[in-house]
Amino acid sequence: MIKKFLNKKEKNYAVVNLNKNFKENSVDDKFWIYCDSCNTQIFRKDLEDNLNICPKCNKHYDFEARNRINLLIDYNTFEEFDYNLEFKNILDFPDYEKKLLKYKKSTNEKEAVITGIGLINNIKVVLCVMNPNFMMGSMGAIVGEKLTLAIEYAIVNKLPIIISCASGGARMQEGIISLMQMAKTSQALSKISNSGLLYISILTNPTTGGVTASFAMLGDIILAEPNALVAFAGPRVIKQTIKQDLPKGFQTSEFLLKHGFVDMIVNRNEMKESLYNILNLHGYTCEKNFCEEGDLIVYTEH
């Protein structure tokens, strides 16, 4: 009876952003998943409770943008920017509106990036989080505009900015307009540098295409999650082009760390503390002129 119950297939249930990461298995995937990294079955709730990190091999799977904000930002301190910005199909790309509507309904978001301000252990930051579930986090005009507005807000208010990247690259439905966002965001970030402010880039799986070729790799400090794909062109495209075998682990965050393109690989559950330490190291202090350390209150200056 137990075996029959475990092998029973149920198709009418909601699964949040996990099915695409795991192979089908005979065990009922309502309760179990199959990790394609360590080839083991994991109790689904264990994975979800572990921030979508495999508890056996530490593989980091997809993580929703709103969950990432809640993970990084102090409770109830996030204030979102420009939520209602929406792009029109000025190129009249076939079925573009239908596709956008589909993703708006499935994600309850209006675009592929969320921007705003919040506190990280009482330090105020501008945070931008790309949403891989909205058209693969592709970058179009509104993504570029929201990022640029967030960067400009950071400059005016003298705040550090953190961008968590997850993208399939430029959005083909917007043609050259999407490619222009590479220059637009890069130029805005040059003003961050000229202003002496800190920009931290976080690379998550996947970070590819025009996003990699622009703001993702321009951070003063570049962090990455373990086993993230970071690339311009994908490994299969490169291999088909040059007709050669690629190095083992090519275009993973570990490979990039070894070759100097990434400063540090940080587990998802340690990311907030790492960001806090980096912000402190660069002279950013707590809001309301105090930082709490246990029962002590240490007063600091802005």
TrEMBL record:
Any Pfam family matching the protein: Carboxyl_trans
Zinc finger (C4-type): 35-57
Domain of life the protein comes from: Bacteria
EC number annotated for this UniProt entry: 2.1.3.15
Cofactor: Zn(2+)
Cofactor note: Binds 1 zinc ion per subunit.
Matching SUPFAM superfamilies: ClpP/crotonase
Catalytic reactions on record: N(6)-carboxybiotinyl-L-lysyl-[protein] + acetyl-CoA = N(6)-biotinyl-L-lysyl-[protein] + malonyl-CoA
Domain spans labelled CoA carboxyltransferase N-terminal: 31-297
Gene Ontology molecular function, alphabetical: acetyl-CoA carboxylase activity
Signal peptide span: none
Keyword ATP-binding listed: yes
Keyword ATP-binding (UniProt): yes
Purpose: Component of the acetyl coenzyme A carboxylase (ACC) complex. Biotin carboxylase (BC) catalyzes the carboxylation of biotin on its carrier protein (BCCP) and then the CO(2) group is transferred by the transcarboxylase to acetyl-CoA to form malonyl-CoA.
Record family assignment: Belongs to the AccD/PCCB family.
Name recorded for this polypeptide: Acetyl-coenzyme A carboxylase carboxyl transferase subunit beta
Organism: Paeniclostridium hominis
